[in-house]
Design brief:
The chain has 288 residues and is α+β, with helices and mostly antiparallel strands. The chain has three domains: 15-110, Helix Hairpins, CATH 1.10.287; 130-177, Roll (SH3 type barrels), CATH 2.30.30; 183-263, 2-Layer Sandwich (Alpha-Beta Plaits), CATH 3.30.70. It contains eight helices and eight strands; from the N terminus they run H-H-H-H-E-E-E-E-H-E-E-H-E-E-H-H. The strands form two sheets. The protein has a five-stranded antiparallel sheet with strand order 4-3-2-1-5. The protein has a three-stranded antiparallel sheet with strand order 6-8-7, covered by helices on one side. Helix 1 packs antiparallel against helix 2 (64-88), helix 3 (93-110) packs across helix 4 and helix 6 crosses helix 7 (246-263). It starts with a helix and ends with a helix.
Length: 288
């Protein structure tokens, strides 16, 4: 029993001596690698913010590129820091590169959706169907573009709702950009009575358009008879305005057009149906 206890003590001492020697040799490397990771993470975050601030001050750089370039700086520094930390604990650089290649292949197969978002983000930046500040709409999303990132795009809806949309959802869908072009057409309809003069209605609507300085003169506004409806003659007004003024001009013309028609002595009729009853037909039915 005493011999077994002494053997255990000897083995324990050997183990402790080995751990002490390993700690004296490897612990500084591990602590150095951990410190390097923490400093690298802090520095990459600061570099990302500094890059974004620098790009914001550069008027020649499209705002759409800011989020993507700052993200690339952040992740690029992190990769270098991780490689340096692994080298600090004794891992060979060639082994690291081989491991990164194998891991990249495995991650690529496992995260195909994420990689497709990155590819879609790069294509969105390259082809630029929209920029930061544009109002866009797809079959599923609509909002003002706030930032185009490496993995997703941030949209803000008109109701003040935050939307974080994967880039692949935008790249694979039909995109309608309402603010890309400089001007936009305002298209409104007004109904007048069949007894009213269409030329008077046209003059009244064109006068309402001429009173608004935000409306373009080239191409010139025009009004035409668009439809002979059941209860009214439908006059259609079309004019062009700068895109930022579109909604305010549309609302103003809707109100001012109604006022102009009424001031011209014209009538905006209600939906109605005329029913003609023949007296002789009623007499025959009553006699029967």
């Amino acid at each position: 029993m005493i011999m077994m206890s002494s053997l255990l003590d000897k083995e324990l001492h050997l183990l402790l001596d080995g751990l002490t020697a390993w700690a004296a040799l490897e612990l500084p490397r591990i602590l150095g690698a951990a410190l390097l990771l923490m400093v690298g993470w802090w520095f990459s975050s600061r570099a990302q913010r500094a890059t974004a601030a620098l790009l914001t001050r550069q008027t020649r750089i499209d705002p759409t590129l800011r989020g993507l370039l700052s993200s690339l700086v952040h992740y690029g520094i992190l990769i270098l820091v991780i490689v340096a930390a692994l080298g600090e604990i004794g891992v060979e650089t060639t082994s690291i590169l081989a491991a990164l290649g194998a891991a990249g292949l495995a991650i690529g197969l496992a995260l195909q959706g994420t990689l497709s978002n990155i590819a879609a983000g790069l294509m969105l930046i390259w082809l630029r169907p929209f920029r930061v500040g544009d109002y866009v709409e797809t079959a599923s999303f609509a909002g003002t573009v706030h930032e185009v990132g490496l993995f997703a795009t941030e949209l803000h809806s008109t109701e003040g709702v935050f939307q974080f949309v994967p880039n692949s959802e935008l790249w694979n869908k039909r995109i309608v950009n309402y603010t890309r072009l400089r001007t936009r057409m305002v298209d409104l309809k007004f109904g007048i009575s069949y007894a009213d003069d269409t030329e008077a209605a046209r003059a009244a609507l064109l006068a309402a358009v001429a009173s608004d300085a935000r409306i373009e003169t080239d191409p010139a506004p025009f009004v035409f008879v668009d439809e002979l409806a059941d209860s009214a003659v439908v006059m259609r007004l079309r004019c062009w305005t700068p895109t930022p003024d579109y909604w305010s001009v549309r609302r103003a013309l809707m109100e001012n057009g109604k006022i102009a028609i009424e001031q011209a002595g014209l009538t905006i009729p209600y939906p109605q149906h005329e029913v003609h009853v023949r007296g002789d037909a009623l007499m025959k039915k009553a006699a029967a």
